[in-house]
Amino acid sequence: MIEEQLIRRGITDQRVLDAMRTVPRHLFVEDAIQSQAYSDFPLPIGSGQTISQPYIVALMTMALQLTGSEKILEIGTGSGYHAAILSRLCQKVYTVERLDALVSRARKIFDRLRYHNIVSRIDDGTEGWPSEAPFDRIIVTAGGPRIPTPLIDQLADPGRLIMPVGGQEVQELQVADKRDGDIKITTIEHVRFVDLIGAHAWPN
Ligand code: SAH
């Protein structure tokens, strides 16, 4: 996975590669598909949701440019895999998921792995996590029509947010940089994510 899917495609950040080597991805997928956990495609994680392919996890993580001191907000806990990767590379991860079943499962894996710098909650993540703001980095792992305003408000200055933005079929990975009160958006590449559903995204 590391050599063929990541390094060969330009994932050069050594810390990201180390985290991807360390976190046991097979624990985060359902038992029946554990043998495919390190394959080059997204996988079902239950409740109609998917875990991104390893390359997309690495690409988004690299784009966050983490140094180890950051406080990160993740929207879309899903299996918990991406939160686990982030937790190895920053100070603390706050992750929000709207589906109870997924949060409960992810929490058990975090405990088992003793990843104690991850806190999670069940809520509409398009509202952010106001009581813990601001966040140095925000990552949204579901696709929406636009970046939710509460997330822009809860981003630290300077700070960086990454999110798939577009239609329900295909999105572009957008990076929003906040600096001196201004927001600058750049685009990385086209991706396909499951829907971000909430007050500031797609309706339920
Ligand atoms: N990061 C995850 C992949 C998440 S898939 C992983 O590593 O496995 C996207 C997740 O976003 C789904 O679990 C979906 O339920 C969740 N989601 C969608 N809309 C949401 C919202 N408004 N708030 C929180 N989570 C949301």
From TrEMBL:
The entry's keywords: Cytoplasm, Methyltransferase, S-adenosyl-L-methionine, Transferase
The lineage's top-level taxon is Bacteria
Species the sequence originates in: Desulfobulbus oligotrophicus
Recorded hits in CDD domains, A to Z, give: AdoMet_MTases (cd02440)
**Which EC numbers does the record give?**
2.1.1.77
Catalytic activity as recorded in UniProt: [protein]-L-isoaspartate + S-adenosyl-L-methionine = [protein]-L-isoaspartate alpha-methyl ester + S-adenosyl-L-homocysteine
This one is known as Protein-L-isoaspartate O-methyltransferase
Q: Which GO terms describe its molecular function?
A: protein-L-isoaspartate (D-aspartate) O-methyltransferase activity
Biological role = Catalyzes the methyl esterification of L-isoaspartyl residues in peptides and proteins that result from spontaneous decomposition of normal L-aspartyl and L-asparaginyl residues. It plays a role in the repair and/or degradation of damaged proteins.
One GO CC annotation: cytoplasm
Keyword Transferase listed = yes
Provide the GO biological process annotations: methylation; protein repair
Residues at the active site: S52
- Which protein family is it in? Belongs to the methyltransferase superfamily. L-isoaspartyl/D-aspartyl protein methyltransferase family.
Q: Does Methyltransferase count among this protein's keywords?
A: yes
Localisation: Cytoplasm
